[in-house]
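forwarding from the other thread:

> can someone predict this with ketopantoate?

sure thing
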Amino acid sequence: MRILVVGAGALGGYYGGRLLAAGRDVTFLVRPRRAAELVRHGLVIRSPLGDADLGTPPHLLSEAIDTPYDLIVLACKGYDLDGAIRSMLPAVGPQTAVLPLLNGMHHLDVLRAAFGPAAVLGGLCVIPATLGEGGAILHLAPPQTLVWGELDGAATARADAIAAALSIPTLDVRRSDAIVQEMWEKWMLLATLAAVTCLMQGTIGEIVAVGGADLSRRALAECEAIAGACGHPPRPAVHDRMLAALTEPGSTAHASMLRDMRKGVAAEVEHVLADLLRRRPDGIATPILDLALLRGRVYELQRAGA
Ligand SMILES: NC(=O)C1=CN([C@@H]2O[C@H](COP(=O)(O)OP(=O)(O)OC[C@H]3O[C@@H](n4cnc5c(N)ncnc54)[C@H](OP(=O)(O)O)[C@@H]3O)[C@@H](O)[C@H]2O)C=CC1
Ligand SMILES: CC(C)(CO)C(=O)C(=O)O
């Protein structure tokens, strides 16, 4: 199976790199700056589960794509989605499956409109990762789960083939027949984590240490009220797990959005928070999410003016 990973950033570099190290046929679609970095420093993964130094991996720019791929793993940020779609267009043929790893839900509509509903799979990742010096992939803590599936839950022949391609000992990959529900649940977790850690500019452990566990509780309830109104209330066991993680004393958990704010780079404020609030029906109050959205937008305004 020929796999094109769009974006060799934290997630694309991690999952694509692990697949490449396991002998899968992986090529990275990158832009010129990242291409130069990959040539200069190689693809480097630093992880508590084992480092990998992969040398310069197979990579190309959009204009060099000459045939469609079987599977495209899309690992850009939400704000780069339109550009990524333009870049990957020549790689999408009638049989190509597109597996997005982005947080949130809006990208599914955009991808289905661009490539047709049948091309698009659902996917989510639970992995704290970021880019370090020279573009090294820094995997910050053990989870590295990738969940994916057909959006309608069907067991298709292409899904069997993709499952085989993604199944390697170094990755925690699971196929789901309820991927849309799981993506909503992941969004609830992330939106809560982003709201509270970006508002407080600290980790869950720090917020809990100063008596702020209730902030997580209330923010999660706001997210879940919107998800419920949209037909995707979290399953009770998932709610319990999310609440425990979001109120855990000593936890170093924080959102990738906070890491982006600390680095002074673009944050997915619109994709993660604004899109969720856009779906809020009248009558549901979301004061914490509203504040978090304002905080994020002030950050983006300041960045634009800097
Ligand atoms: N990091 C994390 O801990 C987690 C992130 N996620 C989600 O995963 C998604 C990806 O995040 P993350 O990996 O952190 O982001 P990064 O910023 O680390 O990587 C994104 C990569 O996409 C590349 N890219 C953007 N547009 C194009 C294009 N047109 N062609 C080729 N490459 C392109 C960027 O390239 P360039 O270098 O040229 O800018 C960049 O390298 C986000 O939606 C995020 O919310 C989900 C779970 C955890
Ligand atoms: C919730 C978390 C940390 C899980 O991977 C995440 O998706 C993010 O911070 O973007």
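The two ends are 45 Å apart (CA to CA). thats all i got for now
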